[in-house]
Amino acid sequence: MGKKYILFDHDGVLVDTEFWYYKAGERALADIGFTLDKDQYLRDMKDGLGAWAQARAAGIDEQTISRQREIRNAYYQEYLRTEAIEIEGVVETLAELAKYVRMAIVTTAKRVDFEIIHEKRQITQFMEFVLVREDYQLAKPHPEPYLTGLKRLGATKEETLVVEDSSRGLTSAVAAGIDCAIVSNDFTKAQDFSQASYRIETLIELKDIILQGT
Q1: Which keywords fit this entry according to its UniProt record (predicted)?
Q2: What is the predicted pLDDT for the residue at 149?
Q3: At what angle do helices 18-30 and 62-82 cross, to 10 degrees?
Q4: Predicted pLDDT of residue 1
Q5: Which residues are within 8 A (CB) of 213 and not within 5 positions of it... i.e. 6 or more apart?
Q6: Which residues of the chain register pLDDT less than 70?
Q7: Would you state the pLDDT for residue 214?
Q8: What is the 3-state secondary structure (H, E, C) of the chain?
Q9: pLDDT of residue 212
Q10: How far apart are CA 135 and CA 137, in angstroms?
Q11: In terms of C-beta density within 10 A (0-12 exposed, 13-18 middle, 19 or more buried), how is residue 123 classed?
Q12: Whose CA is closest to 90, among 199, 169, 11, 152?
């Protein structure tokens, strides 16, 4: 049976933001004299942890972490406004996929960040809706985000494909009972994707996956 619906993750799949999120955390911690270890950060990401795990392990108190988190958020938004975060070919690919499937975005991004990213971009015109972090209770790896997406689309699990770049997102899709294609991303390439239905280098490969079942 062919796929009729695609639920896209956002960061690292449709826009290249993972690096800048890391840089914002690194900069916020450097402000208090702490050096973020990138390799450890990438390992922590697998477990759903961010920059603050290292800070806590080093004994930095919660009040300081809370303050630096706000500063990190401001740095991140600055990067979103000023840095090149496009992934080549995404808009063209979405335009092509839109001929065959209905699409939506299911992201852990906060609404404010998502809106900054899409102020001047052409991605959301192809989407029926977007679910941001404020739109559901439990985040990935819990299945709720993708189950919410299915419900909004009025789609069955069998008719739907999830596109992700992280093991947390993959776990969420698998727990929701939906096939998942993992797209290559340098920031997540060391994660465990053994449960993925497909591994792809670029989004245009999704067309073949969709058409092979029709």
Answers
A1: Hydrolase
A2: 98
A3: 130
A4: 60
A5: 1, 2, 3
A6: 1, 213-214
A7: 54
A8: CCCCEEEECCECCCECCHHHHHHHHHHHHHCCCCCCCHHHHHHHHHCCCCCHHHHHHCCCCHHHHHHHHHHHHHHHHHHHHHCCCECCCHHHHHHHHCCCCEEEEECCCCHHHHHHHCCCCCCHHHCCCEECHHHCCCCCCCCHHHHHHHHHHCCCCCCEEEEECCHHHHHHHHHCCCEEEEECCCCCCCCCCCCCCEEECCHHHHHHHHHHCC
A9: 85
A10: 7
A11: buried
A12: 11
- Beta-bridge partner residues of 181: 163, 198
* Total residue length of the chain: 214
Model confidence over 154-194: pLDDT tens digits? Answer: 999 999 999 999 999 999 999 999 999 999 999 998 899 99
Tokens of 147: 């189950």
Residue 43 CA: distances (Å) to CA of 37, 39, 53, 188: 10, 6, 11, 9
